Amino acid sequence: MNHKVLILGAGGYLGWPASLYFASRGYEVLAVDNDSKQFLMQETGSRSINEPPSIKDREIPSSLQSNLTAEYLDCRHFSQLESCLRKFQPDTVIHLAEQPSAPLSMQNFDKSHYTLINNLETTHNILWAICGLKKRPHLIKLGTMGEYGTPNIDIEEGWLEIRHNSRSDKFLYPRQASSLYHTTKIMDTDLIWFFVRTHQLAVTDLMQGPVFGCKISEDSFGELFSELCYDDIFGTVINRFAAQAARDLPLTVYGSGNQIRGYIALQDSLRCMELATENPPQPGDLSIYNQFTSCLSINEIADTFVQAGKEVNKSVTIRRVTNPRVEKEEHYYNPQNIKLLNLGLEPHPLDLEAALELIQFCLQHRSEINTDKILPSVTWKK
Q: Given this model, what pLDDT does residue 215 score?
């Protein structure tokens, strides 16, 4: 295969696994990052299992070294980014280079401002850099299901047909985010749609739900694991529950626990990126996929971990805490996700086996879990 993939934001929870995944499948991969997440984690005291080194010091499996190169690059420096694209001439660009934490974006003015400027400037630079290339690559942008919010109607895959006063048209599905981070993702989508219409770019926007798990692969290059953040800033709820179960802490359910979201396993997220790479849209088209495999309430997730705990002789309990977020706790939620399934995605949903695997991984790293970093420290209302 002579298909070049440039992965921006390759040092993160999804970025490094994606770099290894694509390289293992024969793609020529250039993985770049500016180590910003490591700096943010240091500033906030956030913690993860398997904390990674700088992108320049990543250990690449010997079997992948001919396909994968890792370099330092800050996408907010346009000239550096433009030079990288011109030199590498990618067929596909996967854009993961954004500040990914909703709590961090709500912490204070400085972190809110950083999230806004970093995320939008990065996306803007990437779009302009692609426009300057003679051979324009397919851009895959990681969005989020959080852009949609929790509307009282079904959530379509990116687009909505509207009929008004006897006329009809198709628009981007209305967005209503619940954090500043998610709001920057909405702005990304609008920015991308403008560039697609104006400059005839080919872009795929992946509306991804919260990701769980840390196993990258056990087929192509041995059993490797990503970092697993379990703290209140960067840790997703499922990974946090696994860490709490391993450390004999009650599962902290925010509010009623009836909040419903769409979730996806790490290995499925990587496969979705590959499916998007294999199925690029035509220039001037914006493809949008809802990237999740199962819709669950927080209570359902907690119950699954209670049952999984019994398999390893853990008496896992549940503790309800005041919800630090501003969100609907009772709501309708019916998003569609048929497109990726039609392309061949074979889901690995959160079930008893998956929860047990996560608990067992956290048990192996029990001493690395700092229990002081799990409870919520950021509230939405000021």
A: 81
**Residues assigned a catalytic role:** 144, 181, 185
How confident is the model at residue 221, as a pLDDT? 56
For residue 211, which of 305, 96, 90, 293 has the smallest C-alpha distance?
A: 293
Q: What residues are paired with 321 via a beta bridge?
A: 254
Q: Specify if 245 maps to a domain.
A: no
For 170, residues 6+ apart whose C-beta sits below 8 A from its C-beta are 159, 160, 161, 162
Write the CATH number for 123.
3.40.50.720
Extract the tokens encoding 55: 């992108």
pLDDT band at residue 171 under the 50/70/90 scheme = very high
Q: Is residue 353 part of a domain?
A: no
Q: How far apart are CA 78 and CA 32, in angstroms?
A: 14
Amino acid occupying residue 51: E
* The one-letter amino acid at 7: I
On whether the pTM is more than 0.90, the answer is: yes
Pairing of strands 286-291, 203-208: parallel
The number of helix segments (H) and strand segments (E) in the chain equals 11, 18
